[in-house]
Write a structure and sequence with these properties.
Radius of gyration: 14 Å
Order of helices and strands: EHEEHEHEH
Length: 140
């Protein structure tokens, strides 16, 4: 299953970009990143069937193990792409929230979108490591 991070805004050269790159390199599953402008732009067509996950402060909070189990279930059910959408500073609109398969949150606090990208990359690496049976909690 392909993991696709679709984020609004440019990460450019920054400490967050270094973190994202570090974790994305470690992911053994196919992984793609798409950057879009803060508004507009064309979201690439998904590989189907796909699941759409919106990162949202009001989203469901899950443990790393439960997140890994969800990705594993989708993979085993034949889902070809899990698409993680990170909004611009103002987040996602109601239409996008209603269309999503899952609203995922990293806690009730509001996080900068560049930091969310880094946190997502780490959790994707962690989830794929859990599914591969690696001692993810000992690496960093």
């Amino acid at each position: 299953m392909r993991l696709h991070v679709i984020a609004r805004g440019k990460i450019a050269r920054s400490p967050e970009a270094e973190l994202v790159a570090r974790y994305m390199k470690r992911i053994t599953w196919p992984v793609v990143q798409t950057e879009l402008p803060d508004s507009g732009g064309v979201i690439p067509a998904p590989l189907t069937p796909a699941r759409e996950i919106l990162l949202d402060e009001r989203g469901k909070q899950v443990s790393s193990e439960d997140f890994a189990a969800l990705l594993g279930r989708w993979r085993d059910d034949g889902v070809r792409e899990a698409r993680f959408l990170i909004g611009a500073a103002d987040g996602h609109g109601d239409a996008a929230r209603n269309r999503a398969d899952l609203l995922l949150g990293f806690g009730p606090m509001t996080w900068p979108h560049l930091l969310v990208r880094a946190m997502l990359a780490e959790q994707l690496w962690r989830a794929t490591s859990i599914l591969a049976g690696h001692p993810y909690h000992r690496s960093g």
